[in-house]
Amino acid sequence: MGPPHVQEVPAVTTTPQAVRRASPRTRRPATQAAPDPSAGLLPHAEPVRLLNPDGTPLPARKDYPEPPVEALRELYRRMVVGRRFDVQATALTKQGRLAVYPSSRGQEACQVGAVLAVRDTDWVFPTYRESMALVARGIDPVEVLTLLRGDWHCGYDPTQVRTAPQCTPLATQCVHAAGLAYGEAYQGRDTVALAFIGDGATSEGDFHEGINFAAVFKAPVVYFVQNNRYAISVPLSRQTAAPSLAYKGVGYGVPSEQVDGNDPVAVLAVLTRAVAHARAGNGPFLVEAHTYRMEPHTNADDASRYRDGAEVDAWRDRDPVTRLETYLRARGVLDDAVVAEVAEQAEAYAAELRTRMNEQPTVDPLSLFDHVYAEPTPQLIEQREQVRAELAAARDEEGDA
Question: Is 297 marked active-site?
Fold first, then answer.
């Protein structure tokens, strides 16, 4: 048996040109950079500001143009009236006319700027701290304070004023706003929902659920976080490790921005753009305003236990009302006469509120059972009849006495 047959393989002649043609470097297409998934979502590294703390203007910005001067004059007027309302409401708690009152003094730019950025036909979802925002929206101040007076769940008709009841549970209004906005868009209505949120509420699950739903279904919602540094006594550093709360938006695919919340011009400019974004069908927008509450969390809170006077004094120098007044005076669109006129309006507003709140409300005990269910349950009817019988018995005893 002979040796195995070995097939000869012809030699391959390689030219320099062939080597270059076969080079992996030239055969593979150039690698393109992957798109940045956060592009267009992240806020500016520093809060948007159009006025310095002393009221002098900063260079104009194309992304956030300054609102018309008439809008700024109206913003000033409502801020002055709103602050006087807030001071009066705080005094009413000391007189026993209110059970509790969460002041928003120091946050006037946020409270008023937000409601001026939306239309009367839009919906507002306030927290318990938004009393000033509601009176700036034009709601009767006595009806606004009815909840805090303790004699009714909501003093105003939400459907009439397009404003949800003030929300005491943290962040539940985020879900309500998303649902209403989605429903309005689904029915082809041109409606934006504005949801007020405190910094502490961003740690709640309802905040996640609301903003995530709104993002997925492109609900026209503006989530407006007023970061006033404390969730009651818990400082912001114990709420988040993010650079700012506005950065939370990127996790949901929601564009966001942060703004100097004590700069009234910037607040109105940023929120105007955010509302326009939502109204155009682009989905939700998250805005964080950096601000500070000058008063305790409520009249039942002792703020000196968790913050010192020096911190409060530092924020007093950033007063939003003074800031806007200084700017408008320098522009020549506000003078002593107008300032005095607005102050007089604010005092008249507070005086009327005092008078009306000093009137003892007439409360029917049986109204406790109204509006619990659309159709009263048998148990509720039974309880109501028990109370009715007790009231009748008490009247009979008084008649016999």
Answer: yes
Contact (Cβ atoms closer than 8 angstroms) between residue 126 and residue 89: no
User: Of 208, 306, 307, 384, which is the active-site residue?
Assistant: 306
| From 83, 84, 277, 297, the catalytic residue | 297
Helix (H) or strand (E) holding 263: none
- Rounded to whole angstroms, how far apart are CA atoms 377 and 127? 30
Phi, psi of 199 (to 5 degrees): -65, -35
- The string of pLDDT tens digits covering residues 124-156 is 999 999 999 999 999 999 999 999 998 777 899
- Whole-model pTM: value is 0.87
* 16-41 b/e (C-beta count within 10 Å ≥ 16 → b): eeeeeeeeeeeeeeeeeeeeeeeeeb
Question: How far apart (Å, rounded) are the C-alpha atoms in residues 267 and 103?
Answer: 19
Q: Is 44 a catalytic site residue?
A: no
Catalytic residue flag (residue 293)? yes
Segment holding 194, helix H or strand E:
strand 193-198
The CB-based long-range contact list for 272-278 (8 Å cut-off, 24+ gap) reads 272/67, 272/117, 273/63, 273/64, 274/117, 274/222, 274/224, 275/117, 275/118, 275/122, 275/192, 275/194, 275/222, 278/181, 278/192, 278/220, 278/221, 278/222
Chain segment 43-54, per-residue pLDDT in tens: 999 999 999 999
Tens of pLDDT along 173-225?
A: 999 999 999 999 999 999 999 999 999 999 999 999 999 999 999 999 999 99
What string of DSSP letters covers 105-135?
TT-HHHHHHHHHTS-TTSEEE-BTTTHHHHH
Catalytic residue among 105, 176, 293, 318: 293
